[in-house]
C-alpha cells in the first residue's frame, strides 16, 4: 500500500488504511510506526465480512449508484401506464390517481436530481446574502411586511364591512395581544416583526381554507378523505369486540381503536421518511418568514404531528443549551397544537375534520407569535443549525414491523387517555357540585364569564362554549371534543359556534397536560427541571391564548349560512368530482352543518 504522510495515492489505499484503523489488521503493506503485534493478529469472521462490505467490487458500487434510481423510474413508469388506462376507462374518476402521479413525479425528480436542484438555489442564496447586506435586507423585509399587512387590512375591511358581528373577533385579537404585552417578561424586547408574520400566516391560511373556493374544496375533500380512511378502524373493532357490541361503548371500542390504527399509519410514514420531510419543510417556512430560532421552528413543526411528549426525545440533545425564551416557545407550541394520533380521535367524535386539521396548522405560527410577546428573547443565543436536528428514519426492518411498533406504541397513549378520563371526569363532577353548592348559598348556583363572545361565538352559545373551554383546561381537550361532537350531532349549537369552537379546543393546553409535559421533559433533560417547572404555567396560558387567537381569525373569516351560498355554488362542481374518489358510504355530505341545506347532489 502506498502511504505518504497523511495522503494516499488512490482510493483503494485509503480504504485499506481504514480497515487497519478499524479492525487492527493488515490488508496491504505496513504503515510506519505500526506495532508488529497488530500485524500478527488474525481477523475474525466479522472483520472479514465488514471488510468485504467496505471494499466492494466495481459492479456492486455501480449497482448501488444506479440501481435505486432505476427502481424508482421503473415503478414510476409502471404507475404512469396504470394512470393512462385509468384515464381511458373513466376520466372523471381518475383525478386522484392523476394527483398521485404528480406527487410521485415530484418525488422521483427530487430523489434523482436533488443535487442539481439545490445547487443553483443555494448559489443564488449565497449571492443574495453577499451582495445584499443585512441593513438592506432588513429594509426590504420591513417594506414587504407593511405591504402585505396593508393588503390584508384592505381585504378585511372590504370583506366584513356588511357584517358588524365579524368585527368583534378583531377586538378579541387586540385584547389578547395587549394582555400578553402587559404581562410580558420584557415588553420593550418584543420583536414585533415576528409577531406580525405570525398573525399574517394565521390569516393567510385562514383565507385559503375558509374563503378561497379551491382551498375550501381541497380542505373539505381532505377532511372527508381522512374521515373515510379512519373509518376503516371499525373493521378491526368489529372483529375484536363484535359488530353490535362495539357501538354500545363508542369511546372505548370505536374512538380509541382509531388512535391505535392511526398510530400504526404514522409509524409507517416515519419508516418511509415521509413525515420527516413534511416536518422539515414546515420548519423551514416558519423560520424563513418569522425569523425564529431553528430549534423553535423545528419543535413547532414537529408538535403538529407527534406532540410534545414524543418530541421531547428528539429535542433531548438541545434542551440544555436553550435560553428560557426558546424553551418557552417550545413549550407554548406544544400546548397550542395536538398530535396527529389524537387529532384522529377528535375527528371520530364527529367534529368537522377539515377544521380540526386546519386548526393545528394555523395555531403553529400563532404559538410562536404569542410566545415571543409573553417571553421575548433577551440573550444572544449561540444555537446554530445542526445536522443532528433531524427526525431519524424508522429503524424497523420492514413495513410490517413498522405497523406493529406503531400499534404497540399507542397502547400507552390509549391507557393514559382512559385512566385520565375516568379520574378527571369524577373529579370534575365533585368540583362542579361543590362550587354549585357554595354558589347556591348566595343565589348563584352557576357562574360563567362569556369571554367567548369576543372570539366570534354567538351570544346564545357563549355559555355552552364556555363550559367546553373549562373542561378543556381543567380536565383535557379529549372530553371537551367529545361533548362538542355530541352538541353538533344533536344540533344544540349553531354552525358558526361549532366551527369556532373547534379552533378554540384544538390544543393540548390543560392542567393535566402540564404534568404530562413536565414529566416527559424532565426525564429527557433533568438539569432543566427547575426551568421547566417555572415556565410551564406561563406556557400553558400562552398556548391557550394562541388557540383563542386562531379562533378569532376563524370567527372573522368564517361566513354564515347566507354568505356561504356563493362559495358553495362556486365549489360545488369541484367537490362533487372529488367525491367520486371515495366510496359513497360513510362519507359526510359535501358541506358542513353550517352550509345551506338547499345545495343537494343532482
From TrEMBL:
The keyword S-adenosyl-L-methionine does not apply. Residues 355-555 form the Concentrative nucleoside transporter C-terminal domain. Residues 172-243 form the Concentrative nucleoside transporter N-terminal domain. GO terms for molecular function: nucleoside:sodium symporter activity. One of its GO terms (cellular component) is plasma membrane. Keywords: Cell membrane, Membrane, Transmembrane, Transmembrane helix. Its main location: membrane. The keyword Flavoprotein does not apply. It is found in: Cell membrane. It is a multi-pass membrane protein. The chain crosses the membrane at residues 70-88, 94-113, 140-161, 167-183, 195-214, 251-272, 293-315, 327-349, 356-375, 410-431, 502-523, 535-558. Residues 252-350 form the Nucleoside transporter/FeoB GTPase Gate domain. It holds the Pfam family Nucleos_tra2_C. Belongs to the concentrative nucleoside transporter (CNT) (TC 2.A.41) family. This is Sodium/nucleoside cotransporter. It comes from Magallana gigas.
Amino acid at each position: 500500500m502506498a502511504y505518504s504522510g497523511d495522503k494516499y495515492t488512490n482510493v483503494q489505499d485509503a480504504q485499506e488504511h481504514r480497515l487497519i484503523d478499524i479492525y487492527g489488521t493488515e490488508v496491504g503493506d505496513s504503515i510506519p510506526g505500526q506495532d508488529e503485534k497488530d500485524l500478527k493478529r488474525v481477523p475474525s469472521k466479522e472483520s472479514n465480512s465488514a471488510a468485504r462490505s467496505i471494499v466492494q467490487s466495481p459492479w456492486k458500487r455501480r449497482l448501488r449508484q444506479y440501481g435505486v434510481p432505476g427502481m424508482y423510474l421503473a415503478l414510476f413508469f409502471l404507475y404512469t401506464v396504470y394512470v393512462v388506462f385509468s384515464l381511458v376507462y373513466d376520466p372523471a374518476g381518475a383525478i386522484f390517481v392523476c394527483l398521485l402521479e404528480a406527487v410521485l413525479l415530484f418525488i422521483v425528480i427530487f430523489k434523482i436530481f436533488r443535487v442539481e436542484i439545490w445547487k443553483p438555489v443555494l448559489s443564488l442564496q449565497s449571492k443574495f446574502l453577499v451582495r445584499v447586506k443585512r441593513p438592506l435586507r432588513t429594509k426590504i423585509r420591513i417594506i414587504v411586511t407593511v405591504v402585505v399587512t396593508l393588503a390584508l387590512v384592505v381585504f378585511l375591511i372590504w370583506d366584513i364591512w356588511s357584517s358588524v358581528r365579524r368585527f368583534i373577533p378583531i377586538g378579541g385579537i387586540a385584547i389578547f395581544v395587549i394582555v400578553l404585552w402587559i404581562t410580558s417578561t420584557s415588553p420593550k424586547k418584543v420583536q414585533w416583526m415576528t409577531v406580525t408574520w405570525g398573525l399574517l400566516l394565521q390569516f393567510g391560511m385562514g383565507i385559503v381554507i375558509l374563503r378561497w373556493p379551491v382551498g375550501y374544496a381541497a380542505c373539505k375533500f381532505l377532511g372527508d378523505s381522512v374521515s373515510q380512511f379512519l373509518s376503516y378502524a371499525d373493521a378491526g373493532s368489529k372483529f375484536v369486540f363484535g359488530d353490535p357490541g362495539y357501538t354500545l361503548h363508542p369511546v372505548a371500542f370505536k374512538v380509541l381503536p382509531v388512535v391505535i390504527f392511526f398510530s400504526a399509519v404514522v409509524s409507517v410514514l416515519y419508516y418511509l421518511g415521509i413525515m420527516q420531510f413534511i416536518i422539515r419543510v414546515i420548519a423551514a417556512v416558519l423560520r424563513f418568514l418569522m425569523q425564529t430560532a431553528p430549534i423553535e421552528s423545528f419543535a413547532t413543526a414537529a408538535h403538529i404531528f407527534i406532540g410534545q411528549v414524543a418530541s421531547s426525545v428528539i429535542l433531548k440533545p438541545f434542551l440544555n443549551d436553550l435560553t428560557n425564551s426558546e424553551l418557552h416557545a417550545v413549550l407554548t407550541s406544544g400546548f397550542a397544537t395536538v398530535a396527529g394520533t389524537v387529532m384522529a380521535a377528535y375527528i371520530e367524535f364527529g367534529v368537522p375534520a377539515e377544521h380540526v386539521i386546519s386548526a393545528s396548522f394555523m395555531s403553529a405560527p400563532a404559538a410562536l407569535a404569542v410566545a415571543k410577546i409573553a417571553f421575548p428573547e433577551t440573550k444572544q443565543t449561540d444555537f446554530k443549525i445542526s445536522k443532528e436536528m433531524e427526525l431519524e428514519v424508522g429503524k424497523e426492518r420492514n413495513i410490517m414491523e413498522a405497523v406493529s411498533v406503531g400499534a404497540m406504541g399507542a397502547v400507552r397513549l390509549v391507557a393514559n387517555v382512559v385512566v385520565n378520563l375516568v379520574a378527571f371526569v369524577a373529579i370534575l363532577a365533585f368540583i362542579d357540585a361543590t362550587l354549585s353548592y357554595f354558589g347556591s348559598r348566595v343565589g348563584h348556583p352557576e357562574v360563567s364569564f362569556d369571554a367567548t363572545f369576543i372570539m366570534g361565538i354567538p351570544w346564545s352559545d357563549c355559555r355552552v362554549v364556555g363550559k367546553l373551554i373549562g373542561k378543556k383546561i381543567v380536565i383535557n381537550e379529549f372530553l371537551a371534543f367529545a361533548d362538542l361532537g355530541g352538541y353538533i350531532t344533536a344540533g344544540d349549537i349553531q354552525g358558526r359556534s361549532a366551527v369556532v369552537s373547534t379552533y378554540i379546543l384544538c390544543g393540548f393546553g390543560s392542567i393535566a397536560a402540564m404534568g404530562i409535559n413536565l414529566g416527559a421533559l424532565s426525564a429527557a433533560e433533568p438539569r432543566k427541571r427547575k426551568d421547566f417547572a417555572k415556565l410551564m404555567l406561563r406556557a400553558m396560558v400562552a398556548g391557550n391564548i394562541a388557540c383563542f387567537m386562531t379562533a378569532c381569525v376563524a370567527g372573522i373569516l368564517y361566513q354564515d349560512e347566507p354568505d356561504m351560498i356563493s362559495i358553495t355554488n362556486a365549489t360545488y362542481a369541484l367537490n362533487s368530482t372529488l367525491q367520486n374518489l371515495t366510496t359513497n358510504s360513510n362519507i359526510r355530505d359535501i358541506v358542513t352543518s353550517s352550509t345551506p341545506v338547499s345545495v343537494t347532489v343532482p
